[in-house]
From TrEMBL:
Keywords: Isomerase, Rotamase, Signal. Belongs to the FKBP-type PPIase family. This is Peptidyl-prolyl cis-trans isomerase. It holds the Pfam family FKBP_C. Residues 1-21 form the signal peptide. It is an enzyme of class 5 (isomerase). It comes from the Bacteria. One of its GO terms (molecular function) is peptidyl-prolyl cis-trans isomerase activity. It catalyses: [protein]-peptidylproline (omega=180) = [protein]-peptidylproline (omega=0). Its EC number is 5.2.1.8.
Length: 313
């Protein structure tokens, strides 16, 4: 619900594993990814093993990718990834038809990541991810569409940086103003309002610090991972929650991938923080309810900042 537009940037999706869950055959119909051991697609691909440098990827172009494939290039020595883990990595994408690097963290692109499940990454990637440890370098072959609808056969090479944990805000209690509904937390950390808002809604976005974390501060260009719940000011009803979906939400800060009230008010927050954002229509979904179901609504969000992966310095 919070997304304003697609997360596809430039030539590919910067915030997800390449499309191993919904690959296409030559006829364009959907087919499952089943080649979990690497297979022919990666047989002629060589990936450098120096984890201190941008990966180099060598193959004879064009590379035919007839089935999705994934394999570990360099095993890591950290925690092993499990089903449901949220992982963050540094990656590059290479066009399999030309050998051209389309996007690279080492060249200024944002970091990326995914919550590991069969539904999100496909069976081929899932089988490899759940044998992989933090610190690993992996390569995947698959397909992705650009924001213009063009389909790319791609190689993705990535270094797994970390598993996001904990999946809730933790830190020092804040000192909210008391002008807005109090927030109560369920045992798992999911927030709820103790009542509907009262009085006139603010005309500019308000940020209330509920918990102050102790991690790195968020900044423009970060790949942010967070949990959130949203309510309408008009009647206090909930309209969206990542907690209920069971999956944190991620986006690249400051690139227009979310409503302005998020892009502009989730900066300079230590990871681990929880904030309340009260966002008027102009900084949410506009004034017109015919243009968007939340048009004309002032919105309240409670956001737990779980991780902020920075771009390369």
């Amino acid at each position: 619900m919070i997304r304003r537009r697609t997360l596809l940037t430039t030539a590919l999706a910067a915030t997800a594993a390449i499309g191993l869950a919904a690959c296409t055959d030559d006829s364009g119909s959907a087919s499952g990814a089943s080649d979990g051991g690497g297979g022919d697609a990666l047989a002629g691909v060589t990936v450098s093993e120096d984890l201190g440098a941008e990966p180099t990827v060598e193959f004879e172009a064009p590379l035919d990718i007839s089935a999705a494939a994934a394999e570990i290039v360099v095993p890591g020595d950290g925690d092993t990834i499990a089903d449901g883990d949220v992982v963050v990595w540094r990656h590059l994408y290479v066009d399999a038809s030309t050998g051209e690097t389309l996007q690279s963290w080492w060249q200024g692109a944002p970091a990326s990541g995914v919550q590991v499940s069969v539904d999100t990454v496909g069976q081929a990637a899932f089988d490899v991810f759940t044998t992989m440890a933090v610190g690993s370098r992996f390569v995947m072959a698959g397909w992705q569409q650009s924001s213009t609808g063009q389909s790319y056969a791609l190689l993705q090479v990535a270094d797994v940086d970390r598993i996001v944990s904990p999946l809730r805000a933790e830190g020092e209690a804040g000192d909210p103003s008391g002008d807005y509904p109090a927030v109560t937390l369920a045992e798992d950390g999911a927030p709820a309002l103790d009542g509907a808002p009262e009085g006139e809604a603010p005309t500019e976005t308000v940020r209330e610090q509920l918990i102050t974390g102790s991690g790195d501060s968020t900044r423009t260009g970060d790949y942010l991972t967070m949990h959130y719940t949203g309510w309408k000011w008009s009647d206090g009803s909930q309209f969206d929650s990542s907690w209920e979906r069971g999956a944190p939400f991620s986006f690249v800060q400051g690139e227009g991938q979310v409503i302005p009230g998020w892009d502009e008010n989730l900066l300079d927050l230590p990871v681990g923080s929880q904030v309340m954002l009260v966002i008027p229509p102009a900084e949410a979904y506009g004034e017109d309810p015919e243009a968007h179901e939340l048009g004309g609504e002032t919105l309240i969000f409670v956001v737990d900042v779980l991780d902020a992966a920075h771009r390369a310095d």
